[in-house]
Amino acid sequence: MDAQALRARLTARGSRRPIAAIRAAQDAPLPPAMSAPAGSDDALGLVEGALVPAAVLVSFLLGPASGVLLTKRNAHLSMHAGQVSFPGGRIDATDRNPEAAALREAQEEIGLDPARVEVLGRLGDYVTGTGFSITPVVGLLPVGVGLDRLDLVPSPDEVEAVFVLPLAVLLDPAAPCRRRAEYRGRWREFWVWPHSEHYIWGATAAILVHLATVLRGE
Length: 218
Hints:
Elements: H1 3-11, E1 52-61, E2 67-73, E3 84-85, E4 88-90, H2 98-110, E5 118-122, E6 126-127, E7 132-140, E8 159-166, H3 167-170, E9 177-183, E10 186-193, E11 200-201, H4 202-215
Parallel strand pairs: 1-7
Antiparallel strand pairs: 1-2, 1-4, 2-3, 2-8, 5-7, 6-7, 9-10, 10-11
């Protein structure tokens, strides 16, 4: 899929529809191999009170190693420690819109220059079990530029690794699978994407599922 085809898919009418079809994943439990650190907000169930607005940058590399840019959070963080995520975070009062927030957070977390991102639009908002309403902002990175040429500088306080989920994997309808696990006396199902080094699950995996359906025109 080239840049023109990607733009067409992501800006087509209906690409901003809510993620209702995969909302079941919003209550995803912690995978059996992971545990919640003390003070983490990884508890299941929506927290009381208003949802916290947040934005993430879903950015594409198109070239020899096409794919979606992802990060692994540092293990010592108090929230979502060690989990795979998109660059992003809370929308601050100084942010004009979700796009501004996603670009600011990506610059702070991994040193991505906002000028190198062509914003294509948004996917539908995603509500997490920890009380966040996430707006996925979709962007295109310079075509033909690999991860090694983006001059990224991950924040040592926040990001352990930056990597790419290959586009071929994203477009494969058989790639994501549903896992089932018991957590606090309840059985939950959640999406997991295959990767040789990282465990991609939860909100990130669910947003990727929605993104994949949009790109396949479903």
